[in-house]
UniProtKB/TrEMBL annotation:
It comes from the Eukaryota. This is Large ribosomal subunit protein mL64. Belongs to the mitochondrion-specific ribosomal protein mL64 family. InterPro entries: Ribosomal_mL64, Ribosomal_mL64_sf.
Amino acid sequence: MAEIVQMFLFLYKSKYRRKYYKYDEDKIEFNITYALLWAVILWVTVFHHTAIASTTTAQLEHTCNPTNCINGYCINGSCICYDGWQGSGCQYCSGKKELTLFDEEEIMNKRNKSKLGINDRNILNELPPYDADLLWFHETIRYKRRMLGRYGTKGLRNVPVGALWPTESEIEDRLEYERVAFPNTLQEDWALIAKRNEEKERKIKLRDEEVTAKMAKVDQWRRDYEAKVAKKEAEIKAAQEKRERLIEDIRREFGYKIDPRDDKFKEALAKKEKEDRKRKKEARKESQNARFMAQLLAQAKADNAETQPNQTTEEKKE
Ligand SMILES: *[C@@H]1O[C@H](CO)[C@@H](O)[C@H](O)[C@H]1NC(C)=O
Ligand SMILES: *[C@@H]1O[C@H](CO)[C@@H](O)[C@H](O)[C@H]1NC(C)=O
Ligand SMILES: *[C@@H]1O[C@H](CO)[C@@H](O)[C@H](O)[C@H]1NC(C)=O
């Protein structure tokens, strides 16, 4: 800045300038102030511009990154354009340019979106993955055969296809394996398969029949089950009612509302139940006796009936 100011001062203070204004002293004075004013204005505008320029370049230097330095390298914060590009972010085209090897590499890098390694990329494009034998097994016949199978002759590079043909002993082995593992002829195998299928179908049919037969009985089974459940429930209910009746009887005996958890109550209940059981036993005995008597009578009648068969049939009807 100081240089610019000095330059203006030099221009306006030089003797040539003064010489020029010598003819009119008033004018000179006026012009000197005028010139100084101009100098100040110019100086301010120039200073301002350079200041802006320097700040913008400074900003650029600090904000350079791969997103705003589009066609260039971002080095130490400043964007260095590739050939054929210009501008602060190298965003403008500056004309035609022949591609060099370096540029092509750059382009290939930009096209490399998958970021796959070369081998994987080759496999993806159905090309043999390696250009040379890198590992020991790449040199084996087995691997070469696989490459031939997958990628055709280009998978072999310079190995002749004939080299991969199995040797005589390998063929022998293979034939023996076939003989042992699959001893039947094709026709025999077909017959076996047909038989197997028939057997399978027969089994399925049998099972179907079984299921349909059982399904026909399902309703009956369900009814039986429901009847069984109902009977059980009725039994439980009867037992409950009986017990309630017993409790009621005991209460009536005591004459007041006694707690069923009371020991006295329990005692009474046990006694009552015992009596009940006894009564039942007697009843059973009686009925047994009655049945026995009936049998005896029947026997006697049968004996009579041998002489009077007409009478026994009538009695039997009764
Ligand atoms: C970046 O700047 C530093 C000093 O600020 C310098 O030592 C270095 O060499 C520069 N790097 C490049 C690639 O220009
Ligand atoms: C693509 O990029 C990946 C990762 O940067 C690299 O390993 C691979 O070699 C590149 N592929 C090609 C064809 O340049
Ligand atoms: C049963 O008795 C009646 C007479 O009371 C007689 O007419 C009838 O033939 C007798 N039946 C038999 C099977 O003896």
